[in-house]
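Hi support team,

I've been running sequence recovery on a batch of backbones for a student project. Most finish fine, but this one hangs at about 90% for roughly twenty minutes before it completes. I'm not sure whether the input is malformed or the queue is just slow. I've pasted the structure tokens below so you can try to reproduce it. Let me know if you need the job ID as well.

Thanks,
M.K.
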């Protein structure tokens, strides 16, 4: 018996020894690992701890706002919350929730999750009817809730109960808001997917100022958790008060976008600037995006250098006038070929006479005439033309406040210390009328603005002031690239000649007659250039169309440039009817809104077109009665054909195409060829002609 007890005792003690030995070995292993971690690998683990607890974490700064010239917000950063209910949260109290369901329903409807209380109540009842483990963990309340709306929602009776707010999940995020909605959205631009930097428009151009300075954070070990801690606070970006005028920007965007849809260019740009101050009141850069099948604000083509064609001519002629090398009334012989420096002959797009004046040369946009003016004066020393361009600021950077400004590039014109080369002379004859020189549209506008401003070259600027909170950091005032690029007399002469581009009465001279109107007196210059394709050359089928000018002519308030690159629409070869129409429509809309210092009242004004009224499809007596009743003094009447008898071709002159075709077909007559657009002004066979089998009536339409 005693031996059995001893054996049992030894067995138990053996087990205890094994347990003790195991614990001792485990403790020894812990001691070894602790020694290894704290002594041998101390440096490595300290480094990892530093990376985890003290490692730098970039804290994004709050992005600054973009303001209009009057201080109104164009773009601002705002914080929103995505809010959802977790019906499987540990703290969810179903009985209490059902008790307060009426107030909860009203709260959900108030934040816009549901349209009606009945719809909301049904959705909640469906969720509550499910087994507890099958209910939604993210029952969406709102994807865009402000902080005030969130606080109001959390103040609902159920969520105000102790421990019940735990079922509300809230995820805060930043969003860039544009208070004016679609207006100016293209020019304001967007921010990238990170939400930190601008990707297009002004957001991209002014990104370095709007972004601010990022902060640096670290993770700190507290008693029961690790928490982020800002070691260096981020600095909010500047609020930038721009010179953009909301009304003018809206006009520019809508007019340019509409013309883009009609003319389908690769890209188009427009800038409107205040003559006296250089403030950019509107800027829009539209490029066709194949993905969206639409025109979007992307590359700032207004600040990149391009061959703009004949809008260079006013600068060349201004230099010639300022240096006393010619006068507006001097005549030049441009008859015959003009193969300057044995190069390919210089040609003109249309004939303006063999012996035009300098004024007519500019109004008629004569390449030969402009080249003869400049080569006569600078042909033996072309580098002096380059020097004169330098003196008036052609190669200076504008520094308007937008990044990415391109340099003016001109083919070499030689220098005194080098042997005279023939190609330098050729470059001179081309550069003076817009080829062999690439100029950013904003730079060309700056010269046009100087002419409108009496020769004072004011610096274009987009920023009016920088603000940090409520503190004014810097105010940008009127600055000049050159105090005077020409005398006031020459500036006045240039304005008169640019006015003739639109209003010259000489036949086939003025290139901008389609821009005439009875409200705003426009002055400016058309420009057409063939687009150069590397390894191919200049392509006559691809054009860059420009109009640059100012308005009103007598007291210039705004200057403007419009460029269309490679349009394919009906006006793709006419700078006046493509870019010029945008220019004209902007001027007219500014006038209509009283933004030209005028007090417009269209009820007491004559019609805009300046063209006589047209009467169609009525005899002479009826036409006179209509004109008298409408107080029409000037009118034009198309020949009237009397009504036709049955079995003869009906009279459709004066009708629109749809009505004309309907009348013809109702009389058993087929429609033949149709040319033109507008109303029928001629038909063949004429009205009254007997109808024969298979006869077709050809129609000519005209506006």
């Amino acid at each position: 018996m005693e031996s059995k007890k001893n054996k049992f005792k030894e067995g138990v003690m053996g087990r205890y020894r094994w347990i003790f030995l195991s614990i001792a070995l485990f403790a020894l292993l812990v001691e070894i690992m602790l020694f290894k971690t704290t002594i041998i690998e101390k440096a490595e683990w300290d480094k990892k701890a530093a990376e985890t607890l003290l490692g730098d974490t970039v804290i994004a700064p709050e992005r600054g706002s973009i303001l209009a010239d009057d201080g109104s917000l164009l773009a601002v950063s705002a914080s929103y919350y995505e809010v959802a209910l977790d019906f499987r949260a540990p703290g969810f109290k179903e009985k209490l929730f059902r008790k307060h369901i009426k107030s909860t329903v009203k709260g959900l409807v108030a934040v816009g999750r549901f349209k009606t209380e009945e719809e909301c109540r049904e959705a909640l009842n469906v969720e509550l009817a499910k087994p507890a483990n099958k209910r939604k963990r993210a029952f969406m309340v709102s994807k865009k809730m402000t902080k005030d709306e969130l606080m109001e929602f959390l103040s609902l009776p159920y969520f105000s109960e102790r421990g019940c707010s735990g079922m509300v999940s809230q995820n805060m995020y930043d969003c860039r808001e544009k208070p004016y909605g679609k207006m100016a959205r293209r020019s304001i631009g967007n921010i990238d997917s990170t939400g930190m930097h601008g990707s297009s428009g002004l957001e991209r151009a002014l990104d370095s100022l709007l972004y601010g300075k990022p902060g640096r954070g670290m993770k700190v070990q507290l008693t029961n958790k690790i928490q982020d801690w800002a070691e260096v606070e981020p600095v909010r970006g500047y609020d930038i008060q721009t010179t953009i005028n909301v009304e003018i920007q809206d006009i520019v965007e809508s007019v340019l976008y509409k013309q883009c849809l009609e003319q389908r260019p690769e890209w188009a740009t427009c800038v409107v600037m205040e003559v006296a101050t250089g403030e950019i009141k509107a800027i829009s850069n539209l490029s066709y995006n194949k993905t969206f099948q639409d025109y979007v604000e992307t590359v700032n083509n207004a600040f990149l250098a391009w061959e703009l064609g004949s809008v260079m001519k006013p600068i060349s002629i201004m230099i010639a006038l300022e240096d006393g090398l010619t006068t507006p009334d001097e005549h030049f012989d441009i008859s015959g070929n003009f193969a300057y420096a044995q190069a390919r002959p210089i040609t003109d797009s249309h004939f303006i006479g063999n012996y035009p004046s300098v004024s007519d040369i500019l109004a008629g946009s004569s390449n030969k005439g402009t080249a003869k003016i400049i080569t006569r004066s600078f042909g033996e020393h072309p580098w002096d033309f380059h020097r004169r361009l330098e003196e008036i600021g052609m190669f200076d950077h504008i520094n308007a406040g937008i990044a990415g400004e391109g340099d003016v590039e001109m083919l070499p014109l030689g220098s005194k210390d080098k042997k005279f080369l023939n190609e330098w002379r050729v470059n001179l004859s081309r550069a003076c009328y817009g080829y062999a020189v690439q100029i950013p549209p904003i730079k060309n506008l700056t010269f046009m603005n100087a002419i409108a401003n009496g020769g004072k070259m004011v610096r274009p600027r987009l920023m009016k002031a920088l603000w940090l909170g409520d503190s004014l950091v810097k105010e940008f005032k009127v600055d000049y690239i050159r105090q005077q690029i020409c005398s006031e007399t020459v500036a006045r002469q240039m304005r008169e000649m640019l006015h003739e581009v639109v209003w010259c009465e000489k036949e086939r001279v003025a290139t901008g007659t389609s821009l005439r109107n009875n409200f705003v007196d426009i002055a400016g210059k058309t420009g057409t250039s063939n687009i150069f394709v590397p390894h191919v050359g200049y392509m006559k089928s691809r054009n860059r169309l420009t109009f640059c000018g100012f308005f009103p002519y007598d007291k210039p308030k705004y200057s403007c440039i419009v460029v269309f690159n490679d349009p394919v629409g009906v006006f793709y070869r006419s700078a006046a009817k493509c870019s010029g129409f945008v220019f004209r429509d902007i001027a007219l809309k500014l006038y209509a809104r009283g933004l030209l210092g005028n007090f417009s009242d269209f009820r007491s004004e004559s019609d805009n077109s300046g063209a006589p009224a047209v009467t169609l499809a009525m005899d002479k007596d009826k036409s006179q009665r209509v004109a008298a009743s409408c107080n029409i003094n000037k009118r034009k009447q198309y020949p009237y054909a009397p009504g036709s008898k049955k079995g003869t071709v009906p009279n459709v002159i004066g009708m629109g195409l749809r009505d004309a075709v309907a009348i013809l077909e109702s009389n058993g007559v087929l429609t033949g060829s149709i040319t033109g657009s507008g109303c029928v002004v001629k038909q063949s066979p004429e009205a009254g002609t007997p109808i024969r089998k298979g006869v077709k009536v050809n129609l000519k339409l005209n506006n």
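--
Follow-up from support: It reproduced on our side and the slowdown came from queue contention, not your input. The radius of gyration is 38 Å. No action needed from you.
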